[in-house]
Design a protein that fits this description.
It is built from 16 helices and 20 strands. Helices cover about 40% and strands about 20% of the residues. The strands form 3 sheets. It has an 11-stranded mixed β-sheet. Strands 1, 2, 3, 4, 5, 6 and 7 form a 7-stranded antiparallel β-sheet that branches. The mean pLDDT is about 90. The radius of gyration is 28 Å and the shape is elongated. The protein is α/β, with parallel strands linked by helices. The longest helix has 28 residues. The protein has 3 domains: about 80 residues, Thrombin, subunit H; about 250 residues, Rossmann fold; about 100 residues, no CATH class. The structure holds adenosine-5'-triphosphate and magnesium ion (MG). Magnesium ion binds next to helix 3.
Length: about 500
């Protein structure tokens, strides 16, 4: 191959002329003036007088298959050659990595993502609709599955409920989301039924809810699920009637371990009516989602746990997502802290740690191993202009999850509607086709490694082709994600086939 560097060179780029065809995205080797090997990628190819004029962007110096920052200009006299497959294979290979696809310019070079870095530093999968996000999630799940990974997918469209691959045999668990109010703390129950906690009147309602909660627990110790909520509603109704005429209510005080009486005024009547309404609305709204088994108890380690949120209203989905995110993080924190406290010299702390560990082992097994939470349609839960209860907890996972082995994966077709703080906390970005310049700019602001040149490539990506940047990939690259060779529900529908009743 005849190749010659032409024009000026710099630390960052150079131009060369070749009589052989060179593809966009191809990897080439050159030398800098210190005679270091330089790895570069072809960013533009023009054809002039039957010669290919290629602009290459320097990736870095190559030493022992590791890339380092280049500090010297490219030597104008050096030859340029295609980078060997062997070298590229070594660069892109990551031990215990996730094998997601191949380099676009060379289909035989496999690309791996560093599993630990992807999970602990979080990731985002972004594209226009139909760009290949769900396919990417399915491929990642297959790879997580090979590593016995614990995954929870929050799935608003019920796309993954039928996720199937022979390598995921018995590893996918589709879950109908249910909450068991009887295992919640009174505070959690207050959150779930939608009693914020920021004003005085709400605090009064929270106090009444706590009274009622402890009273029902005392009087009907075995009650759970819908029966618990119904009894709670009945008791609150009795209290409403008593407060209407200013009579005392009787409730159980768990700290004093006895019943107490409390006078009621007009104010209390109003708060009790409003609380009763909240509980009734919750009962009605979540009638299909209040159960004896709590969703967190359903999650299993080493499985792809798919939470099918389809059919729920948006506010209900948000409630579930917030509940799940909160529990995954807080139970993992408690688990790790309790493990540490097992060696604590203080007996009380030690006993408490054993109690917590037993409780987690029995009810929240998912928290005993690191876990990845993948959120489809993430813009619903972490919107840019609003603070939902889900954004609070997903944001916490994004900021603190790393230390406790809780990873977050955001999937969205509307990147600019995602909250920028949370998006920028996702270190690895898998960006499939994005056409809209506003979306492109928005993503660029949220990712350190997404340079101008890569942004330009975004609109021209084909289906399943992704720019992958961040800590989990050895170098920013354009990757053809494998087509998932199993089943998931998001694939394009054969519209004409269905209209014409063709099953062949
Ligand atoms: N890597 C790939 N290789 C080949 N085909 C792909 C690839 N990724 C996706 N496709 C095809 O493109 C179609 C859409 O893919 P997918 O469902 O993953 O898109 P999406 O980005 O999740 O869309 P939406 O935003 O609507 O959820 C599917 O029919 C799928 O078969
Ligand atoms: Mg999808």
């Amino acid at each position: 191959m005849y190749v010659k560097i032409i024009g000026d060179t710099s630390i960052k780029d150079f131009t060369f002329e070749s009589n052989n065809r060179i593809k966009f995205g191809e990897y080439v080797l050159a030398k800098n003036i210190d005679n270091d090997d330089i790895l570069a990628v072809v960013k533009d190819v023009k054809l002039t007088n039957e010669k290919f004029i290629c602009t290459a962007k320097v990736i870095g110096t190559l030493k022992d298959n590791k890339i380092e920052i280049n500090k010297s200009p490219i030597s104008p006299e050096c030859g340029v050659k295609l980078c060997d497959d062997k070298i590229l294979n070594k660069i892109f290979y990551v031990q215990r990595g996730l094998n997601i696809g191949s380099i676009v310019s060379r289909k035989n070079i496999r690309v791996y993502l560093d599993t630990n870095k992807l999970v602990s530093r979080h990731f985002a999968i972004l594209s226009v609709t139909g760009g290949g996000k769900s396919n990417t999630v399915a491929v990642l799940c297959k790879e997580f599955g090979k590593k016995n990974g614990s995954v929870v997918i929050l799935d608003p469209h019920g796309e993954y409920a039928t996720l199937y691959h022979e390598e995921l045999e018995k590893k996918v668990k589709a879950i109908h989301p249910t909450i068991n109010p009887a295992i919640l703390s009174p505070e959690e129950l207050a959150d779930i039924i939608g009693l914020g906690n920021n004003d005085k009147e709400i605090n009064k309602k929270r106090v009444f809810l706590e009274y009622a909660y402890h009273t029902i627990k005392k009087e009907f110790p075995g009650l759970s699920g819908m029966d618990f909520i119904e009894k709670l509603g009945e008791l609150l109704y009795e209290w409403v009637k008593l407060a209407e005429v200013g009579w005392e209510i009787k409730y159980y005080h768990p700290l004093k371990r006895k019943y107490d009486m409390r006078k009621t005024g007009e104010d209390d009547f109003i708060n009790l009516v409003s609380l009763y309404d909240k509980v009734s609305k919750f009962k009605e709204d979540f009638s299909l989602n209040i159960g004896n088994k709590d969703i967190i108890e359903e999650f299993e380690i080493g499985k792809i746990n798919v939470v099918n949120l389809s059919g729920l209203e948006i506010h209900q989905m948000i409630t579930f997502v917030s509940y799940i995110a909160k529990n995954l993080l807080s139970k993992r924190i408690l688990y790790i802290k309790s493990l540490r406290d097992l060696n604590h010299p203080n007996e009380m702390i030690k006993t408490n740690a054993i109690k917590n560990l037993n409780n987690i082992e029995t009810h929240y097994k998912i928290a005993t191993k690191p876990v990845v939470l993948i959120v489809e349609e993430a813009h619903i839960f972490i919107p840019i202009n609003e603070n939902t209860s889900a954004s609070l907890w997903l944001g916490k996972i994004a900021r603190e999850g790393r230390k406790f082995g809780v990873g977050l994966g955001l999937v969205s077709q509307r990147p600019k509607q995602l909250h920028p703080d949370v998006l920028s906390q996702t270190n690895t970005k898998i960006i499939l086709r994005i056409v809209e310049p506003e979306d492109q700019k928005y993503i660029q602001r949220a990712s350190e490694e997404l340079g101008e040149d890569l942004v330009k490539d975004l609109a021209s990506l084909g289906i399943g082709e992704a720019i992958v940047v961040g800590i989990a990939i050895p170098l920013p690259s354009i990757v053809k994600i494998d087509r998932f060779d199993g089943i998931y529900g998001g694939k394009d529908i054969d519209i004409v086939g269905e209209w014409m009743g063709m099953n062949w």
